Amino acid sequence: MSEGSIKCDVAVIGGGIAGMIAALRAAQGNKRVLVFEKTADERYVCNSRLTGGIWHCCQMDIQSDPTVLAETIHTITGGQARRDLARVVAKDGIRVVRWMQSVGIRFIKGPYDYQSFMLSPPTITPQGRQWEGRGGDVMLRQFESELGKLGSKVLRGHAAKRLTRGGEAVNGFEGERADGSTFQVEAASVVIADGGFQANPGLTRGPITPAPEKVFQRNARTGMGDGMRMAQEVGAAISDLRGFYGHVLSKDAFHTDKLWPYAWLDFVLAAGIVVRTSGRRFADEGLGGVHLANEIALLDDPSDAIVIADQKIWDERGTFNLLPPNPRLPEGGGTMHVAATLKELAAKAGINAAALEEDVARYNAAVAAKATKSMVPGRSVHKFEAYPIAKAPFYAFPACAGITYTMGGIVIDSSCRVLDGAERPIAGLYAAGCATGGLEGGAMKGYVGGLVKSSVTGLRAGEHIVGQLND
Prior knowledge:
Blueprint: E1 2-13, H1 17-28, E2 33-37, H2 47-50, E3 54-55, H3 66-76, H4 83-102, E4 107-108, E5 117-119, H5 135-149, E6 153-156, E7 158-166, E8 169-177, E9 182-192, H6 201-204, E10 216-217, H7 226-233, E11 244-250, H8 266-271, E12 273-275, H9 289-297, E13 306-310, H10 311-316, H11 325-331, E14 337-339, H12 342-349, H13 353-368, E15 394-406, E16 410-411, E17 417-419, E18 425-431, E19 436-437, H14 450-465
Parallel strand pairs: 1-2, 1-9, 2-6, 9-18, 10-15, 16-19
Antiparallel strand pairs: 3-5, 4-5, 7-8, 8-9, 11-15, 12-13, 13-15, 14-15, 17-18
Helix pairs in contact: 1-5, 1-14, 3-4, 4-14, 12-13
């Protein structure tokens, strides 16, 4: 049963960071804004509430030269990133942080050079998801408080279902409440900010993986791609949908909550190798954990991946980073096979022993000769040093791809207006955050940064709506 129309100046679909920034920035411009969040809980769980909270651009400091940052975006995406989006994300990363500070969001400096801005209090915790009262949770509550002071609000349990049009312009949408009743929204501007499509197997099957059930949902499990679907229905262009941000986790994360979102195996595999139960390598480990997570997801059987290391790698790279797998992975119940020889290790881990010994010998010889690039598959060393696998005991970690958010989505311009197939803006319709595409992902699965992308596009959408965008 419908209860009539809800009227506002700006309707924002999704209450994560991109939606809340767009809403608050528009409200600061004297617009009456309503945020429509499909989850009914007071502290609705979304990726923004679970975030590690580190603002960076391509794992570089957002205070770096914007020209350098923009070129780095193009390099890591193989030139596929839209130049207008790369330019504004590189330029406005620091500006959006300063704006967030002006509305009460607190940051601290992280332990590494590129982590000049990390949400406070830190969300990154030793075991499992401990987000209440921490960075992302505090941030969203602060945004909502500021929104309320300006006469706007968040409506929980309100899911958008279909965009509506008046002539050529989008003028609202139809939706459904958590209790099953329907509603209609009338608004001069609609912002789609409901995140990626990572939790929708119907959409991830193909561009992300042939077997979605074997890719671990390292996220809030609410990103279903509804906004992308609705935008397509009114003629929006959709980017290349390949590529996601995520990490390589213990396969035991599927049944042990202590093993996600941390600890990653990224730095262990980047020093050693990853094989299938056939004993053979299948990807370039030197490109790091995000790349390997994508490559594992693309296997015909994404559950068939095992990280191989030796004692030196486990001692040095296994203890690197904020929450390293050594010792947190075995402490959290993750499977770790240890053996004095590769043959014994293969027997414990269910790997073809002869093939594993052969691949390790080939790999070690290439490392010694500094010829890893000529291997098949090649092993790059420009990002991570290749360690020989030589010091017993040897380690095997059954692994899985953990997906955090998808990188492809709705095509937008630098003002965050949704574009159609002819690159024309669809009047009244904006998109921000991980619902959008054209910056990250593609054939290279290039990772820029979900927080900088979401916050910058949210800010720019709000500013364009109120006519305060300067470029």
